[in-house]
Each structure stands twice: as C-alpha cells, then as structure tokens.
Automatic annotation (TrEMBL):
CDD domains: DEXHc_priA, SF2_C_priA
Protein family according to the UniProt entry: Belongs to the helicase family. PriA subfamily.
Domain Helicase ATP-binding, chain residue ranges per copy: 196-365
Single GO biological process annotation from the record: DNA recombination
Pfam families: DEAD, Helicase_C, PriA_3primeBD, PriA_C, Zn_ribbon_PriA
Its biological purpose: Initiates the restart of stalled replication forks, which reloads the replicative helicase on sites other than the origin of replication. Recognizes and binds to abandoned replication forks and remodels them to uncover a helicase loading site. Promotes assembly of the primosome at these replication forks.
Descriptive protein name: Replication restart protein PriA
Swiss-Prot/TrEMBL cofactor(s): Zn(2+)
Subunit note: Component of the replication restart primosome.
Residues that coordinate or bind Zn(2+) 2: 438, 441, 456, 459
Enzyme class: isomerase
Organism the protein comes from: Rubritalea profundi
Annotated residues for binding of Zn(2+) 1: 429, 432, 469, 472
Top-level taxon of origin: Bacteria
C-alpha cells in the first residue's frame, strides 16, 4: 500500500519491508488496494521520484509477458539491467581538490617551512589552473595534508562523477556523409518521409539491399535526420562482438557527438552498463547502438529504430522471456510512432511476406554502392569429387585448391567458410546426395544413435534407418562431417607458407579476440581466414577476392523447416564478402546437392526467386510466415519425469484444443541431454498466435510441474533442438 502523500507511479522502484527485510520492487500498476486476507505492507521508501520505465516500455513489457507466456517479473528483469535494478553500481566518482583562497605570500612562506607538503600541494594546484584530482596529487599519501588545507579554508574537496566509457581505449575519427547514389536517395527519402497509417503511425520499412549496396550509409543518414528533428535513434545489430565494423562506422560518423552515443552489449561491466543506461535515461545519449536487449533502452522521443541484418537468429532471446528483438522493435516503433527500418540482403520470410501483404513497405537497393560487380559464383559438385578422392574425406576440391594457389600468388586474401551447426545428424548418401526426409513435414529425419531410429522433429514420425540408399542403392549412406579444426589441419598441409587464422566459438573466447584477428586480416598480416557463421556478417575487406564454402549442405541437414532459408542466407551473405574492392571477387561453393534451391538461387543472387519458391513450400506445409510455430519442452535430470510431465501436458493440451491449433507428439529433443538435463519437446502450430499462447498459458497455469522438472515454452521458436 502507498502511504499518503507518496507520489508512486507505474515504473518507479520502491522499497517494501518483507520478512523483516527491505526488498526492492518495481511498480507494475497503481490502483486501489485489493480485497485480501493477506496483511498488506506499506511502501517504506520511493527510490525513484521519476519512473525508471517509461509508459511505452511498460506497455511493451506487458505485451511480451502475454505473448511469450512469461512471468511479468521475468520480463521486468529483461527491461531493467541488473546493475540498475539493484542500485549496485552507483555512479563512479572521483575526488577533486580545488583552491578556495590562496594564503598571502607571508603565510605561504611559513607553510613551506612548517608543512612543506601542504605548500607543494598549493603550488601544484596553482600551476594546474587551481584544480586537480586527489589521485593526481598523490592520493593516500597527501590526504592528511589536503585535509589540513581544507580546515584552514585554502582548498575545497569535491566529488565529481566520472563516466565509465567502454570504448575509452579507442579513437574514432569523424567520417563525413557520402554522396548518396540514386537508389540510396530514394531509400532515404522513404525513411525520412515514411508512409503512415490513418493514426499517423509510420509503416515499417524493409530495406532489401544486396550485399555491399550501402545500407549502412542509408542508416547513418536516416539517424542524422532523426537527430536533426531533435529525436533520438536506436540501432540494433545482431551481436556487438561479431559486428565491430558496423559499430565503428556509427561511432565514427557521430564522433563529434561522441558523448551522445551509447553502446549496450553483453561485454560491458556492470558499472559501464549502469553508466550507459543512466546517460540514456537522462537524455545525454541520444544514439544507442546495441544488441537484442538494447531494444529496451530507456530512450524517449524515439525517431527511428534500425534493425541491421534483421534476419539474424541472435535477435531471438534463448531464455525466458523468449522475445524476438526484431518483432519487439516493430512493436516499440509502433508505440512510439517512430519509423522502423529492417535491413538485410537476405530478409527473413516473415518480414518479406509482410511487404507482400502490404503491412510493411519494401524499399530496395539492387546495385552495389560503389558500382563493383557482384562476385562470380561457381558451384562444385562434391559427389564427383568424393569419387575422385576415394576413401578420403573430400574437404578441398581441386578447383578450390587451384584458385587458392592463384590468389595467394597475387597477394590477395581468402575466406574459407564452414557452415557447421547443430548436433543433429541426418543420413546423406555421398555418391548421390540423397537425404532421408519425413514424408509429412519435408524436413530431414534425425538419426538417434541410442535407439537406432530416424525421427522427425516436427511431427514425431519414426522409421528404421536404411541399409542402402533408397535413391541409388549405394551402401555408403552414413554419418559424415568435419569441423573447422580438421579443415585448418588440411589447409596447413596444402599451403604451408600461408598465414592463417581460425575463427569459431572455440578460438574466439577471449574478449576482443575477434576484433584483433579481423584487424590483423585487414592489415594483411593473415592470408586465409577459416571460420564458421561468425565470419558471415557485415565484414568489409576490399582485398578478399576468393570465398570458399566447404560444404554448403551441412546447414541443410538439420531437422528444421528453416534450414533451406538459413543456408540461402548464409551462402548469400558469405559470398557478399568477396570482391568488395577494386578486384573482382570469386566464390566457390562445394556441395553434394548442387541443385537445391538454396544453392541455385544464391548462386544467381536471386532473393525474389528464392522467396517465391520457399513461400510456396511454407504455405503448403503451413509453416511460418503462414502459421505460428511454438515449442513446448520439459527438462529434468530424471529422464522419465521429463518425458512423463510432457506426456501429461500433451494430454491436457489435446483436450479442448482450439480449432486453429495443431498439436505434435512429445519426443526426445535432438539435443537429448544438455547440462545434465534430459530434454523432451513437442511442437504446436497455429494460424492464430493468440489462440496458441492463450491455450498454452491456460494449461501451464493449471498444471504446475513437479519440482525437479522445468518447463520451457518458446513462442515463434527459431530452433528445434
Ligand atoms: N553513396 C556511396 N558512394 C560511394 N561509396 C559508397 C556509398 N555508399 C556506400 N558506399 C561504400 O560501399 C561499401 C559498401 O557499403 P556498406 O558496407 O554500407 O553496404 P551494406 O549494404 O551495408 O553491405 P553488407 O550488407 O554487405 O554489410 C562501403 O565501402 C561504403 O563506404
Ligand atoms: Zn514429420
């Protein structure tokens, strides 16, 4: 309860005595006290006179809690960084000593004899325009002397706030805006004067621009326009540590406004995050760049929200609340009446379909900005290569090896890409490329070693693994695969002179490791980079003339209806790293399935063609964007209990199932056991998001799990492991 006269508002933090202890909480709603038998407590203290959470953000939080079926407290935790919520890291301050009144010459002379230290301090201060930090004066060794000077009235001791700047060690040279090409001019115009609905809310914009088309320059000038209007700007990037170049470009362009740019990401220390957050809230920082959670930055008067590489999976939060940063960006822009720009060379089909249905505006950049041509794409059939290199793992085709040789001779640089993801293994036949698929869902079946079974991870269909390839009859159908480490070994043997670096989750653990390696590559201290999807994003290296994709199929073999989309995106993005300078670029794609649409359409840089056939497939099997897919899972250290709990939930969900919702069978996850926990899951599909999350919420609320079982619900799930 609120004591009389205390101005508590929604979004403020308050202290309440609970169990003899003062606890901190955030006010979700203010209203008359409810009828209850509980003993209601009075708020003992109002911490923030102004709400920490703006009304728009509060609205966003409530929406997230409902849609993603997450407890509101959990959502509040996502909204407010821990350091801010707990007041753990109050402002960092330093002590400043300032001259108040210098003693006259006579007194000064006396001081020099009797208290030489005090004399020196005064002299030092005098030669430093009367003011120095206590630390610079000598810190602990002079505190006593300074105190005496304070007592005598010669100096004063003050506290001054200092900002913990995460990029303190870096310098950013101001970059001038480029003269836009005609396509960019049109794009910027649409952002500056967006189409609006009848309530004056701008329509979201999908900026579909081929790799190297100058999307970033359009973002920069769009942000500039918002600032000129006195508004603030929010820029989301997939992952700060993976996109150092994009962040650098923003920091450089707005270098003159240095203190108005805030960066939010997971590598900040608690103190840095505290400072950045409060600078934003006070309106000192009006440009915010950050990863997913920066969508909750406490900016006011937002003019523009940009989501760079909007198709990236990293925008989806993997713990509850499992929100999608891009979707929340669109929603926040709507609440704030701001323009939102989703940019990508390979947009998600969800966003693209929204342009087809008229919900979003489609803006295109079809040419590379500096009139470089798109790289030449070659597709290499590894089935033939596998026969040639009998018995060995076919990692490097002759064609790719020869091309690498030539580039190295010319002093040009090479990126080798290995798209290795997921744990799920499907069965593929090397001589013919055939992959075992589910007849109902058209996704690869996953091989479960322990049961010696093939399973469909969408619907639960099971079958025995074939002894021979059903397509060509060869017995070579088997599990296969190689990782980046193996590739590095092989390349090292073939090109002993070349300088190379491997970029993957294992080698890039150290903070700034990626930035440092990329800087070395830029300075041409490295000839070849071998990497996973970590290197597919937004990199710009003019001297890279060859990109090799070692096995394009790996991404196609995961039990996920988005596997094709992801492969198309990765191939297109990776290919876009080649030929970004004066020299022409070449891309060699090694694959066992040269005719798959992902390979063929990316080869021709044809997003529209790809989207058209993929949307047909999605429509036929009723997958997103034509339906919502969600995953309901159980996790427990006791396998039977995880299984049993899910079966029980399944039974209850089946009863009164809304007609729009389709319910899959419970089954072990492809990643059957992780962190000592057994995992089971089932899929839900629905043409109505609301019908789905309401039904699940009702059942989950009525069916609390046993203590040793955790329930996971993932609305609009992106992964199915
Ligand atoms: N109007 C312009 N005139 C000249 N050069 C330009 C112009 N706009 C962009 N560029 C340059 O073209 C190159 C590619 O631009 P940019 O990196 O912004 O493209 P992008 O669309 O963001 O690419 P990607 O999607 O591959 O990350 C950069 O070197 C950039 O400086
Ligand atoms: Zn199936």
């Amino acid at each position: 309860m609120i004591p009389d006269g205390m101005a508590v508002a929604t979004g403020c933090r308050v202290r309440i005595p609970l169990r003899n202890r003062d606890s901190t909480g955030t006010v979700l709603e203010v209203g008359p006290p409810p009828q209850t038998n509980y003993n209601l407590r009075l708020v003992s203290k109002l911490i923030d006179p102004d709400p920490l959470i703006t009304p728009q953000l509060m609205k966003l939080g409530k929406w997230i809690a409902e849609y993603y079926v997450a407890p509101l407290e959990q959502v509040m935790r996502a909204l407010l960084p821990e350091s801010v919520r707990q007041e753990m890291h109050s402002e960092k301050t330093r002590k400043i000593v300032e001259i108040k009144e210098m003693p006259d010459a006579e007194a000064l002379e006396k001081l020099a004899k009797r208290a030489p230290k005090q004399h020196i301090i005064l002299k030092l201060l005098e030669s430093n325009s009367g003011m120095m930090s206590l630390k610079d004066l000598g810190g602990g060794s002079v505190t006593a002397a300074v105190k005496s000077l304070v007592k005598k009235g010669h100096v004063v001791l003050k506290e001054e706030a200092v900002r913990r700047d995460p990029d303190e060690d870096q310098e950013f040279l101001e970059s001038a805006p480029l003269k836009l090409n005609p396509e960019q001019v049109v794009a910027l115009e649409k952002i500056v004067n967006p189409a609006t609905n009848d309530k004056g809310i701008p329509k979201p914009i999908l900026l579909l621009g081929v790799t190297g088309s100058g999307k970033t320059e359009v973002y920069l000038q769009g942000v500039q326009h918002a600032l000129d209007q006195g508004k603030s700007a929010l820029i989301l990037v997939p992952e700060i540590s993976l996109t150092p170049q994009t962040v650098q470009r923003f920091k450089s362009r707005f270098a003159a406004l240095h203190d108005q740019v805030a960066v939010l990401h997971s590598h900040l220390s608690q103190g840095e995050r505290f400072d950045e957050w409060h600078r934003i809230r006070k309106g000192e920082a009006r440009i915010v760049i950050g990863a997913r959670s920066a969508i909750f930055a406490p900016l006011t008067n937002v003019g523009i929200i940009i989501v760079d590489e909007e198709h990236e999976n990293t925008y989806k939060q993997e713990t509850s609340p499992r929100y999608h940063g891009r979707d929340i960006a669109v929603l926040r822009a709507h609440f704030e009446k701001a323009v939102v720009v989703l940019g990508s060379a390979t947009p998600s089909l969800e966003s693209f379909q929204n342009t087809q249905s008229g919900k979003y505006e489609l803006v295109r950049l079809d040419q590379r900005a500096d009139s470089q041509s798109m790289p030449i794409m070659r597709v290499l059939d590894m089935r033939i290569e596998a026969q040639k290199q009998k018995g060995r793992l076919a990692i490097l085709s002759d064609k790719l090896r020869l091309s690498m040789e030539k580039k190295l001779e010319n002093g040009e640089q090479i990126i080798l890409f290995l798209n290795r993801r997921g744990f799920a293994r499907s069965l593929q036949c090397p001589p013919c490329g055939y992959v075992c698929e589910c007849q109902h869902c058209s996704i690869p079946l996953t091989y479960h070693r322990t049961e010696d079974r093939l399973m469909c991870h969408m619907c639960g269909y099971q079958s025995l693994p074939p002894k021979k390839c059903p397509s060509c009859g060869d017995e070579a159908i088997r599990l296969q695969g190689f990782g980046t480490q193996k590739v590095e070994e092989v390349i090292q043997k073939v090109f002993p002179q070349a300088r190379m670096a491997r970029i993957d989750a294992d080698t890039m653990r150290r903070k700034n490791a990626l930035r440092d390696t990329l800087n070395k590559f830029k300075a041409h201290k490295i000839d070849i980079i071998i990497g996973t999807q970590m290197i597919a994003k937004g990199l710009h290296f003019p001297n890279v003339t060859l990109v090799g994709v070692l096995n394009a199929d790996l991404g196609l073999q995961v039990p996920d209806f988005r596997a094709g989309e992801r492969t198309f995106q990765l191939l297109t993005q990776v290919a876009g790293r080649a030929g970004r300078g004066e020299l022409e670029g070449e891309v060699i794609i090694q694959t066992f399935t040269p005719h798959s649409p992902s390979v063929q359409f990316s080869r021709h840089h044809d997003f529209d063609g790809y989207a058209e056939q993929e949307l047909q497939f999605r429509n036929k099997f009723l997958y997103p964007p034509f339906a919502h897919c969600a995953l309901l899972g159980t996790r427990s250290t006791h396998e039977r209990r995880a299984e049993f709990t899910l079966e029980n939930l399944h039974k209850r969900l089946k009863k009164d199932l809304p007609p729009q919702v389709e319910l899959g069978e419970p089954m072990p996850s492809p990643l059957t056991r992780a962190h000592g926990q057994f995992r089971y899951h089932l899929m839900l599909k629905s043409t109505s998001a609301r019908a789905l999350h309401q039904h699940v919420k009702r059942i989950l609320t009525a069916t609390p799990p046993p203590d040793d079982v955790t329930i996971v619900f993932d609305m609009d799930a992106l992964g199915f492991s």
